[in-house]
Specification:
The complex is a heterodimer of chains A (about 325) and B (about 280). By secondary structure, chain A is an all-alpha fold. In chain A, about 80% of the residues lie in helices and about 0% in strands. Chain A contains eleven helices and two strands. In chain A, strand 1 and strand 2 (about 65-70) form a beta hairpin. In chain B, helix 6 (about 140-160) runs antiparallel to helix 9 (about 190-205), helix 7 (about 165-175) packs antiparallel against helix 8 and helix 10 (about 235-240) packs antiparallel against helix 11 (about 245-280). Classes of the chains: A mainly alpha (about 325), B mainly alpha (about 280). Chains A and B meet through helix 1, helix 3, helix 4, helix 5 and helix 6 of A and helix 1, helix 3, helix 4, helix 5 and helix 6 of B.
Chain lengths: ~325, ~280
């Protein structure tokens, strides 16, 4: 009897230990996030102290003189990501609708797995294709055409370099489409069947059913997917670095080379000219981290609230 | 009037349908083109030499990416040694004890963490490992990759563990098996194929990562002898060769892309195969 009680006690102990151990591992996620943020803040302090707000309003980046201001990088990141999102969203939502509402089951499944395949291609391969195939094509065909036809607009002025803001927008668009599409697909699949049947029963055509029953239901989920895509676009490093031309300038023209925040980090961080240069790059990293944290926070809140509401409502 | 509006509505329907189909074709078009170029240039370049040689100096033809492939394998292996157990045990906590604010916070942090650009993970690894050790190293590269793996493994494993029926766990607990043994021997065991699928997908994701290695592993033209030395990695070599001005190096970059592509394709096929055999058995 005594022995039995003893083993029972041991078992209880095992559970307590197990709980603590797994908790430590799970808790490490929070620790990692805090350490990453803290480390970025600490390393940025010298630049933060020296330049203050001037860091994001000025555009002089000179490692030799020790002047660092990041506006051209901010501009490049914001413009390339937003244009890419604007182009990618309708295409992604269209594809997600095609998969969920239009295509026969088999075609839909195949399309969905091809989209997954696109999402799995590493960024460096997109960059390789971008720099060796896409930019030469842009330079020889697309950009001369744009200059000839739309050269009167300030967006299409200048010489065709190939490597340009336009190239970055295209490559980002191709890269974020599969991300938005696959999340939008999940969101659309969660629309209750009864909603759609009701619309069809009232005599709606397929498009009207999508407009009346599907899209309103999926709206906030799709918005979450788009915001998540924006976060991915802003943080995208390799492919953009390879095609954007890496020139820190602010130009209205999409044909001129530009620079983004992750690109300047990728190009300069391994060989910095002194502590202040490293710290300035860290501050760019901090801005990038802050922006992506906010974006991800918003996107997850939206997506989480959507999936929860459905789980509550449908069941 | 009625007929007219009916015709108009159906026209809109047809146009919308066509637009959705066109969007899909446009989305899949780059996939075809990229595959075409990788296969065309990659296949004509790749040969046995590619897998056993290191890159030749500028101007000499030939050479391969053997050190890059080995470096990637070593760093991914080391990253998995840390990332996989942390992810799995964290996921066990979330499934067994995961109700309440702390668990929700952990889930949320994991989702947010996986959205942080990987280049920032590289900067953090630089500050935490490269600076104290006074040099770029394979260790720092593996550390950065492990940080990226943890949230992916955690979330996929949790999804899999959640799918194990509660009745199975209850049966085990009712037999007097303590919770910790139930978790490891019943829950984790039943979800094992799903968990392995998740790990394979995490490895596939990490094997293409370039940005976090730029200033941690740095890359190496030669073989590395120690883990505290800079180490070559396949994606880094593809990057460096792609931005070089030499035609010959471009071809090697395509061949590297082919190897990386086949590797990732193989991993996701393996993941699917493992996932499918669960339903069969």
């Amino acid at each position: 009897m005594e022995e039995r009680l003893d083993t029972y006690a041991k078992k209880g102990n095992g559970d307590a230990i197990f709980r603590v151990i797994t908790l430590l591992f799970a808790f490490s996620i929070i620790v990692i996030l805090l350490i990453m943020t803290g480390e970025m803040v600490i390393e940025s302090l010298p630049a933060l102290r020296k330049f203050g707000w001037g860091f994001i309003t000025g555009s002089d980046w000179d490692a030799v003189q020790g002047n660092f201001a990041a506006l051209p990088y901010l501009y490049g990141s914001v413009v390339s990501s937003i244009l890419a999102i604007l182009l990618a969203t309708p295409l992604s939502v269209g594809t997600a609708l095609f998969i969920t509402e239009l295509a026969p089951h088999k075609v839909g499944t195949v399309t969905a797995s091809l989209v997954e395949l696109l999402a799995a291609i590493p960024s460096v391969i997109y960059g390789l294709w971008g720099i060796l195939v896409m930019t030469p094509w842009l330079q020889s065909t697309v950009e001369p055409f744009l200059i000839k036809r739309f050269g009167f607009l300030p967006f299409f002025r200048g010489a065709p370099y190939g490597v340009s803001m336009l190239a970055a927008v295209f490559i980002l668009m191709i890269m974020i489409i599969p991300i938005i599409t696959s999340i939008a697909k999940e969101v659309l699949l969660a629309v209750p069947q009864s909603q759609k049947e009701a619309a069809v029963a009232l005599g709606a055509t397929r498009w009207e059913m999508i407009r009346i029953a599907v899209l309103p239901y999926g709206r906030s989920g799709i918005l979450g997917a788009v915001i998540l895509g924006l976060g991915r676009a802003i943080g995208e490093t390799m492919a953009v670095t390879m095609v954007i031309g890496n020139t820190p300038q602010i130009s209205l023209s999409l044909l001129s080379p530009a620079y983004t925040m992750p690109s300047v980090i990728a190009n300069e961080f391994a060989e910095t000219a002194g502590k202040l240069h490293a710290s300035a790059l860290m501050e760019i990293g901090l801005i990038l981290l802050f922006v992506t944290l906010v974006i991800n926070f918003l996107a997850r809140l939206l997506l989480w609230s959507v999936t929860r509401r459905w789980k509550g409502g449908v069941a | 009037m009625n007929l007219k509006s009916l015709i108009a509505r159906h026209t809109v329907n047809i146009v919308a349908t066509l637009l959705m189909g066109a969007a899909t074709l446009l989305v899949l078009f780059p996939l075809g083109i990229i595959f075409y170029h990788i296969i065309k240039t990659g296949f004509s370049t790749i040969n046995p030499e590619f897998f056993i040689h290191i890159p030749k100096p500028t101007g000499e033809t030939g050479g391969g990416m053997a050190n890059g492939m080995a470096g990637s394998a070593i760093m991914i292996g080391m990253a998995s040694l840390v990332g996989v157990p942390v992810g799995i045990f964290g996921a066990i906590y979330l499934t067994e004890y995961g109700i309440g604010r702390l668990a929700t916070t952990i889930r949320f942090c994991a989702d947010v963490l996986s959205g942080i650009p990987s280049i920032i993970t590289g900067m953090v690894a630089y500050a935490l490992i490269v600076v104290p050790l006074r040099g770029f190293s394979a260790l720092a590269g593996s550390f950065a990759l492990a940080l990226i793996m943890i949230p992916i493994v955690l979330r996929t494993t949790e999804e899999q563990l959640k799918m194990v029926p509660v009745s199975l766990r209850e049966a085990s607990l009712a037999l007097g098996v303590p919770l910790w043994r139930t978790s490891l021997k019943v829950t984790l065991r039943s979800a094992l194929t799903g968990v392995i699928t998740g790990i394979l997908l995490a490895v596939a994701r990490v094997s293409g990562e370039t940005a976090p290695l730029l200033f941690t592993a740095l890359g190496n033209q030669f073989w590395s002898r120690k883990l505290t030395e800079p180490m070559a990695a396949l994606p880094l070599q593809i990057f460096n060769f792609a931005i070089s001005p030499y035609e010959d190096w471009h071809r090697l970059a395509w061949a590297g892309a082919l190897v990386l592509g086949v590797l990732m394709f193989g991993l996701s096929l393996a993941a699917r195969w493992v996932g499918r055999s669960k339903h069969a058995g």
